[in-house]
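Predicting holo structure, glutamic acid bound.
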Amino acid sequence: MELQVVEQAVAAASDKTCEGKVATYIPELGKADGSRVGVSVFSRSGERLSVGDTKTRFSIQSISKVISLAVALELCGFDMVFQNVGMEPSGDAFNSMVKLEYAHSVPYNPMINAGAIVIASYLARRISFEEMMRTSRSLCLDPDIVLDENVYRSEMSNISRNRAIAYLLESKGYIEKDVEKCLHFYVKMCSLSVTAESLAGLGLVLANDGIHPATGERLLQEQTVRVVKTIMLTCGMYDGSGQFAVRVGIPSKSGVGGGILSVIDREMGIGIYGPALDDKGNSVAGRYILEYLSEKWHLHLFDNRK
Ligand code: GLU
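Done. Tokens:
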């Protein structure tokens, strides 16, 4: 892990940010500065490298789906979680509802909005948002995570599409009553404010099979972590997941706030901030940096030069 390599990656990626655009469909996200880039790499051996905007707070958005899936697996078990949510990449946009219309179609996976809303409905009945926030702090090794009230209000003011998805799911019997409570829970989770460092912390806990790297405390069961990492690999980068898996080969999850969480199994966690997004919703700088690091450090899952 050479600092110079990370610096080179950030410098080159900074030149690419003009190719992307910050998300504006949640008005508050439109205020982000698209030229920002930050990367943190936390290794299992205790090394920590941070370059660029790694302390800037931004909303976790879809990366919260990883935390919600993990907690749901712990609280409800595998069978219940996957009773009404699939495990397949959808090939559609994260907020698509087109396939949900088909007769027996459950949401394709827990990383798209429909799947995450089903998961939120399981969670909202079992655990408070405050408890989820505490769990997020401990999984991200970041005690300073809070709810970004501005993002939360902004998203709630423009929630029609997710509301439509949620009521369609309710009409099909995939989520139980109190759709509004479930939506608030889902949006609050998306509005947690994190940094690139928090995401590297979460990546490290997942790379370490759910064990806190410093205290040795088990935060998540091994089986939970295995499921989460596999779903990240196949479905974590929206409808760009296949191409990302081929080119980069690192289980990752992105969010429209510009974050990417990446897990190099048994080695390190990587967290990225770069709010300029490509047409799929993935951070332009983040994609570039991960491809660069994957090549330089032989991080692709199937790279036999390790
Ligand atoms: N809160 C966002 C939404 O539901 C999450 C989108 C994302 O990051 O993919 O639209």
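The two ends are 13 Å apart (CA to CA).
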